[in-house]
Amino acid sequence: MLKNAFLLLFLISTGLSSRAQAPSADSVYNQYLDFNLARLQGEQDKILELGENILPYADKLPEKARINFYFSVGKMYEDDDQHNKALPYYEKVAAAVPDYYVVHRALGYLYLEKAEAIENKLKTPSSDSTLTRQLTADYTATVRKALPHLEKAQACDPSDETLAIIKTLYKNIRDDAGLNSLDTGLKELSKNCIDILTDK
Question: What is the pTM of this model?
Answer without folding.
Answer: 0.85
